[in-house]
Amino acid sequence: MSQLGLLPRRAWASLLSQLLRPPCASCTGTVRCRSQVAEPVLTSQLKPHQEKPNFIIKTPKGTRDLSPQQVLVREKILDLVVSCFKRHGAKGLDTPAFELKEILTEKYGEDSGLIYDLKDQGGELLSLRYDLTVPFARYLAMHKVKKMKRYQVGKVWRRESPAIVQGRYREFCQCDFDIAGQFDPMIPDAECLKIICEILNGLQLGDFHIKVSDRRIMDGMFAVCGVPESKFRAIGSSIDKLDKMSWKEVRHEMVAKKGLAPEVADRIGEYVQCHGGVSLVEQMFQDPRLTQSKQALEGLGDLKLLFEYLTSFGIAEKVSFDLSLARGLDYYTGVIYEAVLLQTPAQARDEPLNVGSVAAGGRYDGLVGMFDPKGHKVPCVGLSIGVERIFYIVEQRMKTSGEKVRTTETQVFVATPQKNFLLERMKLITELWDAGIKAEMLCKNNPKLLTQLHYCENMGIPLVVIIGEQELKEGIIKLRSVASREEVAIKRENLVVEIQKRLSES
Predict the structure, then answer these.
(1) What GO biological process terms does the UniProt entry carry, in alphabetical order (predicted)?
(2) Which of 46, 173, 188, 212 is 20 to 30 A from residue 399's alpha carbon, by CA?
(3) CB within 8 Å of 495: residues ≥ 6 apart
């Protein structure tokens, strides 16, 4: 530094002039390249009318927006479902949209590849939840809850090729009901099936039936037929496709793709094509091959008891024992079930809507123990309502019937035929809001009366209150019925009471 201070003033001036000189042709290639790149970027940033990037505005594959009409329809479906859950004593629960990846790993069998993994954020490996059951089991273990009857409504995500025409999405809503705790056999299971029947009857989707089986029966059947234990879940996953594929196709998958011996597949075929009521359960008790399995006998015994309870609940005719039912998820340990529509409310001229099962569930006694450090188990059984599929059916029915949906719950509209009455409208609508009445007005200073009345008719608002100079002078309000177009004069102080009376009568 001391040597720099000894430079003459002329030397300092010469050095500064070189540093401040603009680049010339003799500059290095690197500097030239940087200046050429920087200039266009800066220019593009300054152009106010530059063309926007060419991309398609759309929702991601397997997702969708819901219009106000669709939101209202969905809310009505959810209200019916949740009210049924509450009627059976369930408490509400909510869990995060994503979990630690290790919480979800190895809980779904072959479907584990459909889990959405998230990038490392804050040192934790996370995944979007695949269903609401595993997070519920984690909650029970984490909070050491031994008994709980709960419901939950929330979105889940699955990384699969969506079949939109069948109401299947990558992001969709689930409605779950579960009973956790040690209870006498088959009582909670029977209640879950009763709830499914109540909900499907309430939604009036058409006739339906519920297929029931038991994982112990399926595993016992595999064992006596000669399936290696290591292939139980893989073969079960193939069997679970019998509602979408023929037995010939399923057999081919088990033999050609999963390495099962042809004669073993044929023995399985003798069972999985059987379905019936409690009489089939009795028949399986006499099967010389199946009765060699202790766990199959336990499952058959529980199913026989289940049908007794279903008879008491008055729903036994809706339930059938179906040996083709497998339910591919790994965590099921006992009774499993699936509700399928026999027909939909489509018009006769339309093709039937094929949407698959609309509710499903089963017993998973070992799942909570996977998360407990000491392996303490909490027996659980539950169900999930297929909201998206039900929503799809209801949508199609409304399109066919031409039914219109009112998107707001506004009860009263505040209108005026005159100018400069905005403040009076504000005072009047405040009275209605404060009284708990659902009311609205046009956000304009001087709207035309005809415009206001047309809005009420288009939105299906039942009542209109009209205030003008004459009404203000006489201390009255005109109350108009939108449907009949009849008007009556009411004293200002009696308006709220009169509106509440009319709304209670409608």
Answers:
(1) histidyl-tRNA aminoacylation
(2) 173
(3) 431, 465, 477, 479
